[in-house]
């Protein structure tokens, strides 16, 4: 149990939890406490200092929406967002319950009657918006990976492909999501004309914008990894006379996996970062739209609510990164090489 | 006709000014069933020689013939054991060996393949480690996997490029004996590249020194006529062994010092004159002075 817990923590790059487990399982308290002081105490002190400086300076600045909120106001807003979510859910449940009773009554009167089932159309809560954002970034990430991985492998295998792709990569890599968005919007509007499609238009626009910005890291890392496979492994492939397919899947790709995952990790990070901007302009009902709506709303709580969004984005981004680190470690053949 | 033949083979790397000739006029004939060792200093071109024979490199001049046919690339009939094991770290021992078996015997049934792999893994005493990955094995065990992989291909000739040079003396001894035992069982033709004269004498029928490169050539060959099986400890008191050993080492020492004296270069120092800023072309003006401060 203890060793499993330690393994999990190490694997996900959260080594700071290890001394706690050791302490509770009764290992020498002095060393563990010292380690806790180092790995948890110092960061904690830094966070407290940050919160203190924030609350002191924030109240000094007066904006058109009132004073800049401090940590306490932000925490209050986080709580109220949660309460709103719970209330909205209760409303939705009540709505469905009423509908069911109504339909049951209708059916009891006349078994042949057609019953209508209507979806609840309340506004999306903060929680819904987070889920939408995650879906969007995941979709964008999948699109980016599907494009970047094959091209990256191709570029790594063939020098000519690399020469061909290089200028395109160099030119498009630094382009901001804000520049892509209008183009993507126009193209998607022209191509994806159905109104009852499986995806919302704004969802597709945001996802494609995210993938356009995030695919480069995967592409570059993959091609670098493929082109720099250890020469010994290539020699093995040659001596065994492996077919090109076998060489790619049994030797080149396994050898490249660590770098591919480094690329994917960076891609996911970039994707999550540009997501807010993309959603803001595409009006995809995620965190970006939340921030934009609050900004337009201009109530006295708006700034604090936007700050809640900032922290949400940061914390979710952190966890996404941890997940990628764990995945990277799981697939790498040299387990020690991954730097968290 | 010799089993493996190298006729006037030369090989170099690089172009123009950066060109280094590694091997020059190499002539080597190995007969079927023979165990030949090539000894040489590090950097004398041993690995290049091996690469020419296993087909990873092509000679610039001359020809490499295997059973009378020129070598055009790597082939299953020549099994290679690399100096640095070259195991694939993401595969288990079994998978590493089966990768080779898959290529050489594509029509073998799955069960037969498994049987085949297990037989060779057993031969190198690694059955308990069948499902382990290279990272979990010691250096000696890894080299055994490499041996098993090469043998499982059932090659007509076994080429070993300093297979044991990275191992400690004890592991080295056991592996030497194991390789000899396996070779003895089915008398494959074998070529061993090594930097250890004792190892060569213990294992080979013939020892050929490789003179240090660049432009490395093969030296005179030494026949080893010691009765097999040879025992490592008993060899130390064998007069024949001592004599051959001394001859070879003496020869290597001689060519070593020769190569070193040849290497002394004359360096001409460049003729330098200090150039003062601004003095040669024009006098410094007041404006320049401002610029400098």
List the helices and strands of chain B in order. Answer: EEEHEEEHHHEHEHEEHHH
Q: In terms of per-residue confidence, which ranges of chain B show pLDDT below 50 for 5 or more consecutive residues?
A: none
The greatest interface between two protein chains, and residues involved on each side, is: A-B, 18 and 19 residues
Distance between the termini of chain A: 24 Å
CATH H level of the largest domain in chain A: which superfamily? MetI-like
Q: How is this structure best described in words?
A:
The complex is a heterodimer of chains A (340) and B (293). Chain A is built from twelve helices and two strands. Chain A is an all-alpha fold and 340 residues long. In chain A, strand 1 and strand 2 (66-67) form a beta hairpin. Chain B is α/β, with parallel strands linked by helices and 293 residues long. Chain B has a domain at 4-77 and 155-262: Rossmann fold, CATH 3.40.50.300. Chain B has helices at residues 46-54, 93-104, 110-123, 139-152, 169-186, 197-203, 232-235, 239-262, 286-292; strands at 4-13, 20-30, 35-40, 61-66, 69-70, 78-81, 157-161, 189-194, 206-210, 222-223. In chain B, helix 2 (93-104) packs across helix 3. The longest helix of chain B is centred in the last third of the chain and has 24 residues, at 239-262. The radius of gyration of chain B is 26 Å and the shape is globular. Chains A and B meet through helix 9 and helix 10 of A and helix 2 of B.
Q: What's the gist of this structure?
A:
The complex is a heterodimer of chains A (340) and B (293). Chain A is mainly alpha-helical.
Question: Which secondary structure elements does this structure contain, and how are they paired or packed?
Answer:
The complex is a heterodimer of chains A (340) and B (293).
Chain A: H1 2-11, H2 18-24, H3 29-58, E1 62-63, E2 66-67, H4 71-109, H5 126-157, H6 159-172, H7 177-191, H8 201-227, H9 231-239, H10 244-282, H11 287-297, H12 302-331
Antiparallel strand pairs in A: 1-2
Helix pairs in contact in A: 2-3, 4-12, 5-6, 5-8, 5-10, 5-11, 7-8, 7-10, 8-10, 10-11, 10-12, 11-12
Chain B: E1 4-13, E2 20-30, E3 35-40, H1 46-54, E4 61-66, E5 69-70, E6 78-81, H2 93-104, H3 110-123, H4 139-152, E7 157-161, H5 169-186, E8 189-194, H6 197-203, E9 206-210, E10 222-223, H7 232-235, H8 239-262, H9 286-292
Parallel strand pairs in B: 3-8, 3-9, 6-7, 7-8
Antiparallel strand pairs in B: 1-2, 1-4, 4-5, 9-10
């Amino acid at each position: 149990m203890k060793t499993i817990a330690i393994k999990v923590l190490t694997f996900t790059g959260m080594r700071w939890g290890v001394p706690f487990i050791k302490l509770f399982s009764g290992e020498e308290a002095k060393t563990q406490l010292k380690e806790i002081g180092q790995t948890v105490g110092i960061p904690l002190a830094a966070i407290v200092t940050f919160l203190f400086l924030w609350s002191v300076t924030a109240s000094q600045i007066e904006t058109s929406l009132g004073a800049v909120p401090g940590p306490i106001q932000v925490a209050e807003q986080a709580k109220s967002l949660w309460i709103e979510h719970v209330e909205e859910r209760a409303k939705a449940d009540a709505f469905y319950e009423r509908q069911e009773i109504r339909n049951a009554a209708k059916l009891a009167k006349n078994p042949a009657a057609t019953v209508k089932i209507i979806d609840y159309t309340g506004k999306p809560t903060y929680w819904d918006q987070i889920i939408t954002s995650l879906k969007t970034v995941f979709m964008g990430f999948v699109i980016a990976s599907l494009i970047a991985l094959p091209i990256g492998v191709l570029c790594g295998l063939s020098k000519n492909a690399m020469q061909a792709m290089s200028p395109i990569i160099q030119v498009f890599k630094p382009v901001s999501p804000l520049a892509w968005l209008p183009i993507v919007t126009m193209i998607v509007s022209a191509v994806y004309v159905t109104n009852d499609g499986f995806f919302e238009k704004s969802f597709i626009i945001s996802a494609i914008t995210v993938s356009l910005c995030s695919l480069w890291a995967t592409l570059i890392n993959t091609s670098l990894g493929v082109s720099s496979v250890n020469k010994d492994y290539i020699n093995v492939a040659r001596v065994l006379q492996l077919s090109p397919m076998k060489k790619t899947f049994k030797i080149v790709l396994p050898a490249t996996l660590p770098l591919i995952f480094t690329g994917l990790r960076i891609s996911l990070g970039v994707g999550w970062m540009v997501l807010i901007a993309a959603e803001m302009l595409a009006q995809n009902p995620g965190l970006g739209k939340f921030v934009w709506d609050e900004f337009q709303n201009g109530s006295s709580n708006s700034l604090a609510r936007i700050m809640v969004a900032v922290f949400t984005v940061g914390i979710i981004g952190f966890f996404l990164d941890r997940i990628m680190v764990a995945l990277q470690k799981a697939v790498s053949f040299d387990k020690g090489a991954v730097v968290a | 006709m010799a089993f493996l033949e190298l006729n006037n083979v030369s090989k170099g790397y690089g172009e123009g000014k950066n060109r280094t000739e590694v091997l020059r006029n190499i002539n080597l004939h190995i007969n079927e069933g023979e165990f030949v060792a090539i000894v040489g200093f590090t950097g004398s071109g041993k690995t290049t020689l091996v690469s020419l024979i296993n087909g990873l490199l092509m000679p610039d001049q001359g020809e490499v013939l295997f059973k009378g046919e020129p070598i055009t690339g790597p082939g299953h009939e020549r099994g290679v054991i690399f100096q640095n094991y070259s195991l694939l770290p993401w595969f288990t021992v079994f998978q590493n060996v089966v990768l080779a078996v898959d290529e050489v015997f594509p029509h073998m049934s799955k069960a037969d393949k498994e049987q085949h792999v297990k037989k060779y893994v057993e031969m190198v005493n690694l059955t308990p480690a069948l499902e382990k990955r290279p990272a979990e094995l010691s250096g000696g065990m890894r080299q055994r996997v490499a041996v098993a992989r090469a043998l499982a291909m059932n090659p007509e000739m076994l080429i070993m490029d300093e297979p044991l040079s990275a191992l400690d003396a004890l592991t080295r001894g056991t592996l030497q004996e194991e390789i000899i035992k396996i070779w003895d069982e089915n008398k494959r033709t074998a070529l061993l590249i090594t930097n250890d004269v004792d190892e060569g004498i213990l294992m080979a029928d013939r020892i050929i020194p490789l003179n240090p490169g660049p432009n490395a050539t093969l030296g005179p060959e030494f026949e080893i006529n010691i009765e097999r099986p040879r025992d490592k400890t008993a060899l130390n008191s064998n007069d024949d062994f001592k004599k051959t050993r001394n001859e070879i080492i003496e020869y290597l020492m001689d060519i070593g010092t020769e190569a070193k004296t040849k290497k002394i270069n004359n360096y001409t120092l460049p003729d330098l004159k200090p150039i003062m800023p601004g003095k040669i072309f024009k006098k410094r003006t007041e404006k320049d002075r401002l610029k400098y401060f």
